[in-house]
Structure formats: C-alpha cells, structure tokens
C-alpha cells in the first residue's frame, strides 16, 4: 500500500511532461509537495469531456462517509487512498472508476515504513540523472458531493492502484506497492479500454528503482 508520497515536479514541467495545455491547468499556483498524506491535495491528470488532458487538484482518497456510533451524526470520513488490483473488476466501489475514470498521479517518490517504535521510513523512487526523476502512478478518480463530517463539500477524489511488490519494495512491504506506469503506457491508461489498461497493472522493474533515503521520523522527502 502507499500512504505517503511526494510530488516536487515544477508545475510547468508537469504540463510539458504530460501534454497538458496551459488553459487546462487548474492547479493555480502549485508548490512542491514533499509529503502528501491521505486526505491531502494531490495533482492528477484526467481527461475532460473532449478527451483532452486536464491537470487538477484532487483529494487523495475516495470519500467513505462515516457516522458516530454514539450519536449517529456524521463524523470525519475515511479516505480510501489505495485501490487493490484484485478488486478493480469486481468491487462496485472501484469498478466504474476503473472502467471510465482512470487518471495519472505524478510523483517523485513514495514512502513505506518498516518496523515499529521506532519505524524506519524508506523513500523509493526511480534511478536517473536527476535527484528525483518524475514518474506516474496509475490512478482512478471520481466526484464526491455531500456531507464531509460537519460540512458539505464538492471534491474531485483520487486513489492509487496497488499491486504485488517487486524485489526492492518487498523487503520493506511484503504485500503491496503502488503501480508505476512506464511513459509509453500513459496514453493507453488514459484512453484505452479496460481490457487494454488492466494488463498495465504490474510491479515496476526493481532494477529501475532505488531507495533515495531511509531513516527514523522521515515523514517528508524534503532536503
């Protein structure tokens, strides 16, 4: 699973890398994000009604409303920020989004923790000439409009798809890792049929990845 990642890609670079027209950039004045947690704001690339790429802010995690067991009143909802690959085609929670609302989630690293008291945090990313080469998670998105705890909100929400881990990640998290898409597969993920997109869900080659840093209390990839 993935509960923490970073995206420090400059806004103009994201537009260029992911072929987003300036008028389709809805991020405003985006800043580098060295620690994105569930329920946080996260840039994603979606398709608009005309099939053009759109860069927008999402709430990381599909909203799952909750009520207090004591009062029955709405409380802060859960954010379902990971979508398991083995649930995409069978779960009503995920199926329609996978079939019709896939997205790209830009990133520069992601974190997994190992052990407890204290945990060691491992920041994974891609090898390359840059300190933090950009890459893309496979994602899904959907609209949420309704009660969010004590207030009503309208949100674009997103979730990152996970699969079995490769050799590098497995030593830290033996069950799951986020799906990283190769550049040549971005178009298929956005525009392809579910039958074409699903085979792209696979562990990213471990030989193309690295651990940028590790240590205790490293809940940000800053510095």
TrEMBL record:
User: Source organism's superkingdom?
Assistant: Bacteria
Q: Which InterPro entries match?
A: SRAP (IPR003738), SRAP-like (IPR036590)
Per UniProt, the enzyme's principal EC class comes to hydrolase
For the keyword Lyase, the answer is: yes
Keywords in alphabetical order, please.
Covalent protein-DNA linkage, DNA damage, DNA-binding, Hydrolase, Lyase, Protease
A biological process term (GO) from this entry? protein-DNA covalent cross-linking repair
User: GO molecular function: any one?
Assistant: peptidase activity
Per the UniProt record, which EC number(s) apply here? 3.4.-.-
Family of this protein: Belongs to the SOS response-associated peptidase family.
Name the record gives this protein: Abasic site processing protein
Query: What is the organism field in this record?
Result: Halocynthiibacter halioticoli
């Amino acid at each position: 699973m993935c509960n923490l990642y970073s995206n420090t890609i400059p806004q103009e670079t994201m537009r260029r890398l992911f072929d987003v027209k300036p008028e389709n950039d809805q991020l405003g004045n985006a800043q580098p994000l060295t620690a994105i947690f569930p329920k946080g704001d996260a840039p994603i690339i979606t398709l608009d009604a005309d099939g053009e790429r759109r860069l927008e802010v999402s709430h990381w995690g599909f909203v799952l409303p909750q009520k207090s067991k004591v009062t029955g009143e709405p409380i802060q909802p859960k954010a379902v920020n990971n979508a398991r690959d083995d649930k995409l085609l069978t779960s009503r929670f995920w199926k329609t989004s996978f079939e019709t609302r896939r997205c790209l989630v830009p990133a520069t690293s992601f974190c997994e923790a190992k052990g407890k008291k204290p945990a060691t945090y491992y920041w994974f990313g891609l090898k390359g000439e840059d300190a933090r080469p950009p890459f893309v998670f496979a994602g899904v998105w959907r609209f949420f409009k309704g009660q969010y705890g004590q207030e009503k909100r309208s949100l674009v929400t997103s979730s990152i798809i996970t699969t079995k881990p490769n050799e590098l990640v497995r030593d830290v998290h033996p069950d799951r890792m986020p799906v990283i898409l190769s550049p040549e597969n971005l178009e298929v993920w956005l525009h392809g049929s579910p039958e074409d997109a699903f085979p792209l869900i696979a562990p990213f080659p471990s030989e193309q990845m690295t651990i940028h840093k590790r240590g205790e209390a490293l809940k940000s990839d800053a510095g």
